[in-house]
Amino acid sequence: MPETDAPESKDDLYASPPVQRVARLLRRIAEGDAVANMSRTGRELGINRTTLLRLLHALQSERFIEPRSEGEGWRIGVGLITLTAQAFFSEDLVQTAVPVLTRLAGTLTLSAHLAVLDGHEIVYLVRRVPNHALASNIRIGSRLPAHATNMGRIILANLPRERVDRLYAGVDLRPVTPQTPVTPLQLHTQLDTDRALGLAWSDGNYEAGISSVAAAILDVSNTPVAACNVTGQTAQFEGAERRAQIGAAVREAAREISMRLGWHDALQTNGSTRHDSRAADGANSIPRERSWTLA
């Protein structure tokens, strides 16, 4: 397939056709084309097969794309997501959350995170760690399965049941640990528990020796737009008083971020955001973020 680098008009004199091809390809992958059929994608984008192959390998080397877990085709990678997340810093959600989560991490001496739901995965947008020997080292832009993480579960728990059913229709819920829900019934049972507590707890369910608790962040329409959590060694969560302190602090952090985004306390009368005293007690199966290292 011939490729022309000639500008189409005076306005395009400073355009770079190679860069434009990369942009078109990234946009295509982001829109859902896995480029499993290279001939078709190349033809539709006006890129010959050899150039397309080179672009794919170059983008993979920069971690802008990565192979799909199913083994066929490509999806947007951690490198591009990280770059995008850094750009999001100027946007309301991340900019609002950073000071709140920084304070939360310092107060509890636990690592604090913010993530959003993207399809069947959560994507980390904020990471704040305390001055502590053991701290989370998960990268901004990292992706984890929503059904197997407490931030993913608390977002799902605040969505209508039918929306969760549509989202996971025909999806293979792969286990991360024996505690991971792997059927629709198990998933809804876990989400019902998380919703009733108003918090999603984990005690070694995603990584041995690591505990975590997450709360949903809501917007003005009472829709979950993100979640925040804190993680640390299980020993840091021991004792009813300590767990109550952690649960209350995470809930308050999520509430503060939500209110800054336009959510209002009056919306708590909605059953989907009901909180009660059980949330501060020990909780059960919430998978782990495998993201810890000795500093």
Keywords:
295 residues; alpha+beta; Arc Repressor Mutant, subunit A; Beta-Lactamase; 6-stranded antiparallel β-sheet; two-stranded antiparallel ribbon; 9 helices
Q: Quickly count the helices.
A: 9
N→C terminal distance: 52 Å
Label the overall shape.
globular
Number of strands: 10
Rg result = 21 Å
- Count of discrete structural domains: 2
Chain-averaged pLDDT: 84
Element string (H = helix, E = strand): HHHEEHHEEEEHHHEEEHE
CATH topology of the largest domain: Beta-Lactamase
Helix content: 25-40%
The percentage of residues in β strands lies in 15-25%
Largest sheet: 6 strands, antiparallel
Catalogue the unreliable spans: 6-10, 269-295
The CATH superfamily of the largest domain turns out to be GAF domain
**Which structural class do the helices and strands define?**
alpha+beta
The top level CATH class name of the largest domain = Alpha Beta
> What spatial order of strands do you see in the largest sheet?
6-4-3-9-8-7
CATH architectural arrangement of the largest domain:
2-Layer Sandwich
